[in-house]
Structures are given as structure tokens and as C-alpha cells.
Design goal:
With 376 residues, this protein is mostly beta strands. Helices cover 5% and strands 43% of the residues.
Length: 376
């Protein structure tokens, strides 16, 4: 599960800055039951991009990996001849067996810069308006091609044919690029930003939505260190209603220079105090790095672009949520390639005593989302 900090972050610039080449995905996620490692995901993503490049010049889109199909969601089409940005007429699913793109219904609002997550399992919705439907992917917030921030939320019913977008309750306020996670039929939306004039203003609101029964989002708390595009992952507790919600990394924008910078920490929401607590500092986190959560470890990775070869991923260091320690990538069995030189590891953490009281029940399944996100 990867959260890369590299591409497509923030509001759209003037069209004169567009280039005549296919955009990289702003977000890439996969279902928690998908048995593929980071390098598999990068490889299959490149297969999809190669096919998409033959079809259209799409940018700021997202990709969802499932067992049978890989979905291309949202974004816009750039026509360099006029030039103009247009909403996509349809999205796609890539058939892994045939290697072909199949058109599907487009994201209704044609948004970019949205939050995105996958459910752990298909969910049967018993309310009348959702009867006999199974949600799997969720789109939260975003903005239009003219940088109007949205409150829209949608669920995509993934199946073998006729995938359909279903409208979910709107967010209470417009939000672009929140961190989004889902567990036990509940969506968690954390952070994001609004656009005032031409300025991106990050916030730290934490909202939840139980689907399909909730008619509106519920405000839970405020995270002190505001951010957009954090990695959100949920670890189950001792009971069905007990869970630990984590937020890792993300971005903010300097109000004076308007430059984007990283928020290099890991925080957890304490259900007893209803407050966010810092777990650790993420050492040496750079804009080109990726964050991921797999089983009980938070990883810092990089994507290595190789000439005439498919990209590879390299885990630089990992944080063990059971032992509360950082380890170098060379000590991690999840690495899949030879290491390249890296910066010295900095000290971790200053963990508060309250965080240590949180139940340390870690699921051995994949719960977080795989995302690529980035910059202007």
C-alpha cells in the first residue's frame, strides 16, 4: 500500500503550462484483499498507462486496482489543438487478462483532486435507494476544472459489467484532496484544503460517514497539524466497534511563499480522549518519497525510474507499530530490489504515554490505500 508524494497535487495551473503528454495518476489505490506487492502495482499501473496513452490525453485521474480489473477514474481530457480542458465522457476499466480498456460510466462531476479509498469487502446496502448494490470504491470531495472546490461524494459499484456511480451524502463544506479511509462500513475523511482566491488553505477536520444508513457526515475532531492528502489507515481493535485511525504524512502550503511542504509525522486518534496524538516523526521524508502501510508497518519508499525498464520500488525505512521502532530498509524483508545510497536515518519519536495505552491489536490484512499524490 503506497502513498507517493510526487504528482498532481493542488489546484490546476493556467492552461498555458500544460504539456502534450499523458499525465501520471494523482492517486492509485487497491482493495485490501489484493495479493500484489508494490512492484506488481507499479508494473500493472504502467501497463494501464501505456494503453490509455493510445486512447486519449488524460490528466489528474486516479487508478483503482482489483483482482480482475484496473479502473481509471476521474481527471480531464486535454486537447492541445484548441487548447482546452474537457470533462471525460467516460472512465475505463482495464481487463488484466485481455490487456484492453473497456469504457464505463464517467465520474458524474468530472472532478480532480478528490480523496479516494476502497472497502475491504463488498458491502450489501439494505436501504431502498441502494438495494441490491455493492459499493467498493469511494470518491470524496475534489474540485472542478476551474478550481471550484466540491462537496460531492460518490460510491462506485464494482462488478463485471455496468459499473454505476451512486451519490452519497455531501460533505458539510467543500474540500479538495482529503485523506480518506474506510473500515467496517464507515468512511473516514481527514484534512484537505479549500481554495480562496488563488490560495489553497489546508484544514484538519475529521469527519465520518456510516454507509448506507447515515444521511450526513458527522464531525468528530480537529487534527492540530493541518494537512491535505495524508495516508489514512485503520487498525481494528478488540471489538467490532473499536478501531485505531492513523494519519501519516500529507502536505500544507506556506501562506507567505505559497510553496508546498511535507507534514512529516504519524498521528493516531485516541477514542478515549477524542483527540489526535503524535506517534512518531517520519525521518528524512522527501517530496519524491512514498508512504505505505502493510500489515503492522509504515514504510517510507521511493520509486526508481530505470531506463528502458519498468519502474521499481525500494523501501528505505519502516516503522513497526508493535515495537514502536524505526528500522533501515536493508533490515526489512519486504524489499524487492538492491538498495541505492540513502541519507542517514534520523531519530524517531517522542511517543506520548497516552498513545502507549491504545490497544496494540494489529490486523494481518491490508487496510490502507495505495496512493500516488504530488505537487504543482
Amino acid at each position: 500500500m503506497l502513498c507517493s508524494l510526487r504528482r498532481g497535487f493542488g489546484q490546476l495551473n493556467d492552461i498555458q503550462h500544460e504539456t502534450v503528454k499523458l499525465g501520471k495518476p494523482s492517486l492509485v489505490i487497491h482493495s485490501s484483499t489484493l495479493e500484489k506487492n508494490e512492484n506488481d502495482i507499479v508494473t500493472f499501473t504502467n501497463y494501464v498507462l501505456n494503453e490509455l496513452a493510445k486512447t486519449e490525453l488524460r490528466k489528474r485521474f486516479a487508478i483503482v486496482h482489483t483482482e480482475k480489473y484496473i479502473y481509471i477514474v476521474g481527471g480531464y481530457i486535454y486537447d492541445p489543438q484548441i487548447p482546452v480542458r474537457r470533462k471525460a465522457l467516460h472512465d475505463y476499466k482495464y481487463d488484466i487478462q485481455t490487456g484492453k480498456l473497456i469504457p464505463i460510466q464517467a465520474l458524474p462531476n468530472g472532478a480532480v483532486c478528490f480523496g479516494l479509498c476502497c472497502d475491504e469487502n463488498y458491502i450489501y446496502a439494505s436501504m431502498k435507494e441502494y438495494e441490491n448494490m455493492f459499493f467498493h470504491a469511494f470518491v470524496v470531495g475534489g474540485n472542478t476544472l476551474d478550481n471550484k472546490v466540491l462537496t460531492d461524494c460518490y460510491g462506485l459499484m464494482l462488478k463485471n459489467s455496468n459499473e454505476t456511480w451512486i451519490k452519497l451524502p455531501d460533505l458539510p463544506a467543500p474540500t479538495s484532496e482529503p485523506g480518506v479511509g474506510v473500515h467496517n462500513n464507515t468512511l473516514h475523511c481527514i484534512g484537505g484544503y479549500d481554495i480562496l482566491g488563488n490560495k489553497s488553505i489546508a484544514h484538519g477536520e475529521y469527519l465520518t460517514l456510516r454507509y448506507p444508513q447515515d444521511k450526513q457526515w458527522r464531525y468528530v475532531s480537529q487534527i492540530d497539524t493541518v494537512r491535505a492528502l495524508p495516508l489514512v489507515f485503520i487498525i481494528p481493535g478488540n471489538s467490532i466497534n473499536e478501531q485505531n485511525v492513523y494519519v501519516a504524512g500529507g502536505f500544507n502550503v506556506n501562506s507567505h511563499t505559497h510553496k508546498t511542504y511535507i507534514v512529516p509525522d504519524l498521528q493516531v486518534f485516541n477514542q478515549m480522549t477524542q483527540r489526535w496524538q503524535r506517534v512518531t516523526t517520519i525521518p528524512d521524508l522527501e517530496l519524491s518519497h512514498a508512504l505505505s502501510f502493510n500489515n503492522d508497518k509504515l514504510h517510507i519508499s521511493e520509486i526508481i525510474e530505470l531506463p528502458n525498464e519498468l519502474p521499481m520500488t525500494n523501501i528505505l525505512r519502516s516503522f513497526d507499530l508493535q515495537k514502536l521502532i524505526w528500522t533501515n530498509g536493508k533490515d526489512n524483508n519486504d524489499n524487492k530490489r538492491i538498495k541505492i545510497p540513502e541519507k542517514p536515518l534520523q531519530s524517531s519519536s517522542n511517543l506520548s504515554s497516552d498513545v502507549k495505552k491504545i490497544p496494540n491489536i494489529l490486523a494481518k490484512t491490508k487496510i490502507s490505500t495505495l496512493k500516488f499524490a504530488a505537487f504543482f
